[in-house]
């Protein structure tokens, strides 16, 4: 991704991190990321061999994590350690993001769809963990493997999704400020 260009264009600090794919690392790193950076937006990205296009996940479940991670471990009782409801949804309007992405001259023959099944593995686990912190600013995107979309294409598509998410968050923040001003 064009880190410097995106930071300048949107007046943001873009933090790009690769989190090791273990349940334990997610439990440790994700809450620390939220605490350290207090992000305006948290987008997690995972590669899916099944994804045919950019797949924006709408929800994540707390239970059902039975697949072993890199260290051959599962969470205790197959339940995410983060506290929250059985299922958490992002408050970002994923359908709108997909529509605006697809209608707005998407990069190099890419497209975006929404999904309600993040896979009950580490991708969904990390998504649930972040949603439990703040579901108004969290998204998970499954990207196709490199055989479907080259890295540069995926990066451009993620940049577009990032921009569409930021637009929504700015709209939400602006409407909150107006409401608070009118109530005050």
UniProtKB/TrEMBL annotation:
InterPro entries: Peptidase_C15-like, Peptidase_C15-like_sf. It comes from the Eukaryota. Keywords: Hydrolase, Protease, Thiol protease. The keyword Metal-binding does not apply. Belongs to the peptidase C15 family. This is Pyroglutamyl-peptidase 1. It comes from Iphiclides podalirius (scarce swallowtail).
């Amino acid at each position: 991704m064009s880190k410097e260009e995106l930071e300048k264009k949107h007046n943001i600090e873009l933090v790009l991190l690769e989190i090791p794919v273990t349940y334990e690392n997610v439990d440790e790193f994700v809450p620390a990321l939220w605490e350290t950076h207090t992000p305006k937006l948290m987008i997690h990205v995972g590669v899916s061999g099944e994804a045919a296009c950019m797949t924006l996940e709408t929800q994540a479940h707390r239970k059902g994590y039975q697949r072993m991670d890199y260290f051959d471990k599962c969470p205790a009782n197959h339940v995410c350690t983060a506290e929250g409801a059985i299922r958490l949804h992002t408050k970002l309007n994923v359908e709108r993001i997909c529509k605006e992405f697809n209608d707005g001259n998407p990069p190099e023959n890419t497209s975006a769809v929404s999904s309600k099944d993040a896979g009950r593995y580490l991708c969904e686990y990390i998504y649930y963990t972040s949603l439990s912190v703040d579901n108004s600013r969290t998204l998970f995107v499954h990207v196709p493997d490199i055989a479907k979309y080259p890295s540069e294409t995926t990066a451009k598509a993620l940049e577009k999704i990032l921009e569409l998410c930021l637009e929504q968050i700015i709209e939400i923040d602006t409407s909150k400020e107006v409401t608070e001003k009118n109530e005050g």
